[in-house]
Write a structure and sequence with these properties.
The chain is built from twelve helices and 15 strands. By secondary structure, it is of the alpha/beta class. The protein has two domains: 153 residues, Aspartate Aminotransferase, domain 1, CATH 3.90.1150.10; 224 residues, Aspartate Aminotransferase, domain 2. The protein has a seven-stranded mixed beta sheet with strand order 4-10-9-8-7-5-6, with helices on both faces. It has a four-stranded antiparallel beta sheet with strand order 11-12-15-14, with helices on one face. The chain has a two-stranded antiparallel sheet with strand order 1-3. Helix 8 links the parallel strand 8 and strand 9. Helix 1 runs antiparallel to helix 12, helix 5 runs parallel beside helix 6 and helix 10 runs parallel beside helix 12. The longest helix is centred in the C-terminal third of the chain and has 22 residues. Bound molecules: pyridoxal-5'-phosphate. Pyridoxal-5'-phosphate binds next to helix 5 and helix 6.
Length: 418
């Protein structure tokens, strides 16, 4: 471990720490451009070395040669469940409890509606006021479709105690907050929600692949998460979706497509849900994205998430320590829970001109992102980042702030994606 962070941490300390660090060899398992320090793996994970050839093989061999036969011969039809089983150990789920779905947004709609339907008579849904917007937008649709459910929002300083009562059907929570990096105690919060008779849907987008998760021990009801963030399955790769086995036979997802049917190839007129997690499937899965997902999940099977967690906390501690001790003059707030138990794998900085500073930083090869209205956000993906990367990133940020080079007008030009 790096013993002290701050002015006393030298680049040589970081190099020494990296040499002894057990996950350091994984850097070679990713194709990252020369000269880039990638602090945005929480938004779009890096490309694993084996993924291009895995995808090409599916294209050339399974699609090009196998054609329609690959639905059977290459096991295409069962891939959403098979890959769900590879996600399962990363989130503390068992086999048959996870399936690969559509986008996270669609999977949120599937699980939220199914959860609300399991609590008929309860008229309230709860979500976090500052949740990722798509979560709130989808919840709005669910409320309307379910006959006008009321919404109660949990403010940043609010507690569930004040909000939970016998009217609450479902609580939607982000395990790690995408702006502040706050990590919920999943087991304690789930228990509290269950004591009020409600169900929980966990959004794992910013925790899957960064934080050890145990949905089974927490007795969670539903969960969804992205595969293109820390899990590195590539842009637009589909989400995963977890349903506790106790809900499998009673859950009624709203989007009843033929792949969720008990016997899709009977082509019957009436819908009959498949037993188990398969009823959460909808239609034909994106096989090329699943090829990329499979290639990264095979690598994840050998990774110890406890080691990932240790490294993640060391890297965020180092970043915070270096920013505090060397950039205090320019950084008005470091947004990150100081308590390790409440921290995800990211740190945000409130800096004057944050958007422009981030653009200047990206031009220098240090890639993070910006979350309106005023946060520069840095994600720490432990598989391909080193302590030395963190040290170098803070040094580049310092030189931009000190020279005020970020004030050049071109850095203020707004991109579509920030
Ligand atoms: C990234 C993210 C999403 C993304 O949803 P998509 O449907 O994949 O675009 C949703 N919710 C949260 C909390 C996220 O962090």
């Amino acid at each position: 471990m790096i013993e002290h962070t701050g002015t006393s941490t030298t680049r040589a300390d970081c190099l020494a720490w990296d040499r002894a660090e057990p996950l350091s060899a994984y850097r070679e398992r990713f194709l990252l451009p020369e000269g880039v320090i990638y602090l945005d793996g929480n938004s779009l994970g890096a490309l694993p070395v084996q993924t291009p050839s895995a995808v090409e093989s599916v294209i050339r061999r399974e699609w090009g040669q196998g054609l329609i036969r690959s639905w059977n011969d290459a096991g295409w039809f069962a891939k959403p469940e098979l890959l769900g089983d590879l996600v399962a150990p990363l989130i503390g789920a068992g086999p048959g409890e996870v399936v690969i779905g559509e986008s996270t947004s669609v999977s949120l709609f599937q699980t939220l509606t199914a959860a609300v339907r399991l609590r008929p008579g309860r008229r309230v849904v709860v979500a976090e006021e500052r949740a990722f917007p798509t979560d709130l937008y989808l919840l709005g649709s669910v409320q309307e479709i379910a006959g006008g459910l009321e919404r109660r929002l949990l403010g940043p300083d609010g507690t569930l105690d004040e909000i939970l009562d016998e009217d609450v059907a479902v609580v939607l929570l982000s395990h790690v907050d995408y702006r502040t990096g706050r990590l919920h105690d999943m087991a304690a919060v789930t228990r509290q929600i269950h004591e009020a008779g409600a169900l929980v849907v966990w959004d794992l987008c910013h925790s899957a692949g960064a934080v050890p998760i145990d949905l089974t021990a927490a007795e969670a009801d539903f969960a969804v998460g992205c595969t293109y963030k820390y899990l590195n399955a590539g842009p637009g790769s589909p989400s995963f979706l977890y349903v506790a086995p106790r809900h499998h036979e009673t859950a009624a997802p709203p989007l009843t497509g033929w792949h969720g049917h008990a016997d899709p190839f009977a082509f019957t007129v009436g819908y009959e849900p498949a037993p188990g997690i398969a009823r959460f499937r909808i239609g034909t899965p994106p096989m090329l994205s699943l090829a990329a997902l499979e290639s990264t999940l095979r690598m994840w099977q050998e990774i110890d998430l406890a080691q990932v967690r240790v490294k993640s906390l060391a890297l965020t501690d180092l970043f915070v320590g270096l920013v505090e001790s060397t950039l205090g003059e320019w950084v008005s707030e470091i947004v990150v829970p100081r308590d390790h138990a409440a921290r995800g794998s990211q740190v945000s900085l409130r800096v004057e001109g944050g958007y422009s500073v981030m653009q200047a930083l990206i031009e220098r090869g240090v890639i993070g992102d910006f979350r309106a209205p005023d946060l520069m956000r840095f994600g720490f993906a432990p598989l391909y980042l080193s302590a030395t990367d963190v040290w170098d990133a803070v040094a580049v940020l310092g030189s931009i702030l000190e020279s005020k080079s970020w004030q050049e007008p071109r850095y203020a030009v707004r991109n579509n994606v920030t």
